[in-house]
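Supplementary Methods, section 5.1.

A reviewer requested that the exact input to the structure prediction be made available. We therefore reproduce it here, unchanged from the version used in the analyses.
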Amino acid sequence: MKKQKLLGIFLISTMLLCGCTKMEKDTSYDTDLYGTYSWTISAPEISFESKSTYKINEDNTYENCAYKKSEGQTTEKNDSGKIIETKSINNEITKIVMEDKSYIDTIFYKYKNMLGEFYNIEIPQKSKFQLFLQNPNSNLNEGIVFNDDGKYHYCTNYDNCNDDKNSFTKYKKSGNYIYQLIPNKEWKIFLYITEDGIFSPEYFKEK
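The structure derived from this sequence is encoded token-by-token as follows.
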């Protein structure tokens, strides 16, 4: 019993000394393009829920269903169309262009079982770095800003970025991942380091 207690004290002390926190494991997997991909945000404490799905069919068509519930109000939107283009950017990333008759065409990039955004940039070598990932879907000079002090934030005006540093989120690069530290002290996978750049996931394929 004494030995187990001492071992427990040693483990706790080690964690305190090294600042160890839980690291999310990568559960992504290789799969084909076709199937349903979903994105969900839920905040029960403020009665908010939002979900969007894209179903990609083998006949090169897609179906999009979007649902949002906020402050007792519910909105739904359904859309469908053709997939205009699928193109391999490299050995890991595929570009998908979806027809949108009412707006500009929707562009996704596929990495493994995820759809999202791909940034064709030089990959950072250090665990902390200076980097700006500009939002390609905005006409403004806005996007994700990584500072070399180990914190990042979303800046809506990169040319004059003076946001409150106390609201920034901690990050670190380890292996082929960029992690962010969430409130429960867990390092969650934020971005993936891929061939020729960085992938930001938005939708995940349903099994």
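Helices lie at 2-18. These observations are discussed further in the main text.
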